[in-house]
Amino acid sequence: MKKIIAANWKNNGSKEFIKNYFDYFAKNLNNTNKNEIIFFPPDLYMDQIDKYSKKLNFSLGGQNFTSSGDDFTLTGGTSSKMFIDNGCSHILIGHSEMRLYGFDTYTPANLLCFTHDHLQAILCVGEDHNDKKNNHTSEKISKQLKDLYENEFIPKKVIIAYEPVWAIGSGKIPTLDNISFIHRFIKNNILEKLPSLKEKDIMVLYGGSVNLKNAKDILSAPHVDGVLIGGASLEVKEFTSICNLKI
Ligand code: PEP
User: What is the pLDDT of residues 208-223, one digit of tens each?
Assistant: First the structure.
């Protein structure tokens, strides 16, 4: 079954790294499952990677954006129009690292408005260690999902990335039952609030310490539509093998 496999490179990469990476990827990608592959590289390397996107049939996305481009000017900002101009079809919104360090110039709710029809937003949600300890996971996620409902803008398709903050880069993951439970909770929560959507319009990805050893099990778990991968997406052999998985 076709899944979304997304690579969040964060602030990693160089021209040389990209050349070597895509030389290997081009030779070894054998995506018979027809998984949808999306790379989220640093903004400065978008163009370098776009060169490979058509031939290798993957999409590109930005990791954060600061304005629509029409609303106001901002030193250091990147507008949604610039991402579109550079071949992007997706944008990450509300990643926990951006929330933690206050780099979201706008709230995720406002950012969602600026994706227009051209950028598909992937809204990141997830509990931190304290929420988990205090059994506040569902409550925290409900609050974060409010960003979707408090907008007049209702996307045709919603993509959520469930990323427990404690699992990011830690080597720890929730149990498969817990991942499925939270993904179903997210889908039900959205369907209750946005009844015009159908279940098939809501995709929920799991992110946090996904690697080649656990990817197949996670991708096969009920209600999991894909994965968002940080560290392991920088290891080209590992990431290519994940893209090649048959689910
Ligand atoms: C992330 O930061 O989005 C992420 C999933 O990181 P990692 O895979 O390294 O845990």
Answer: 999 999 999 999 999 9
Instruction: State the average pLDDT over residues 176-189.
Output: 98
Q: Is 118 a catalytic residue?
A: no
CATH of domain 4-243: 3.20.20.70
Q: Of the ranges 35-44, 171-180, 190-199, which one carries the lowest mean pLDDT score?
A: 190-199
Report the separation in Å between the CA atom of 149 and the middle of ligand 1, taken as the mean of its atom positions: 26
DSSP-derived pairing of the beta strands 158-162 and 4-8: unpaired
Amino acid identity of 120?
Q
Query: pTM of the prediction?
Result: 0.95
Residue 230 CB–ligand 1 contact under 6 Å: yes
pLDDT digits (tens, 9 = 90+) for 72-103: 777 888 888 889 999 999 999 889 998 888 77
Ligand 1 touching residue 160 (CB < 6 A): no
DSSP one-letter code for 200: G
41 vs 193: CA distance, rounded Å: 33
The answer to whether the CB of 211 is under 6 A from ligand 1 is: no
Tokens of 65: 């954006």
Could you write out the DSSP letters of every residue in 58-70?
A: -EEEES---B-SS
